[in-house]
Amino acid sequence: MKLRAGQRMKAVRELMGLTRNEFGELVGIDWVRLRNVEQLNAKMGEDEFAKIGQMFPELMPWLTYEGDIVMEDLKSSQEKLCRLIAAKIEAGQIPPGFYLEEKLK
């Protein structure tokens, strides 16, 4: 199933175990804006993709165009939250409805 960018961003945030406010502070995006994007009331802007991509480049193929998620890249990331995502995926703690299993390599 094809997900919109806001839905993919929500999956990333939930895998990290962060609230909208926590994720927004981390990447520099207002939580109200995150809510609107996640609820598909607004589209993600290029600047928002860039902010997230600077911190989590390993997630950008999936976040931007629903490309593959390379587990080895997540596991070896310098960013602790990417390594946390890898651990949660390996432990089977993927939030339902995001179809991540299809994109794991």
Please describe what this structure looks like:
This is Helix-turn-helix domain-containing protein. It comes from Microbulbifer taiwanensis. There is one protein chain. The protein is mainly alpha-helical and 105 residues long. The chain is 57% helix and 0% strand. The protein has seven helices and no strands. Helix 1 packs across helix 3 and helix 2 packs across helix 3. The chain is globular, with a radius of gyration of 13 Å. It starts with a helix and ends in a 15-residue tail after the last helix. The relative contact order is 0.17.
Topology at a glance:
Elements: H1 5-16, H2 20-27, H3 31-38, H4 46-55, H5 60-65, H6 71-75, H7 80-90
Helix pairs in contact: 1-3, 2-3
InterPro entries: Cro/C1-type_HTH, Lambda_DNA-bd_dom_sf
Organism: Microbulbifer taiwanensis
Protein name: Helix-turn-helix domain-containing protein
Which characteristics define this entry?
mainly alpha; globular
Strand percentage lies at under 5%
Give the SSE string: HHHHHHH
Low-confidence stretches: none
| Average pLDDT level | 91
Cα(first) to Cα(last) distance is: 17 Å
Radius of gyration based on Cα positions:
13 Å
Q: What does the largest sheet look like? A: none
Helix content: 55-70%
Shape: globular
Tell me how many strands there are. 0
Protein name: Helix-turn-helix domain-containing protein
InterPro entries: Cro/C1-type_HTH, Lambda_DNA-bd_dom_sf
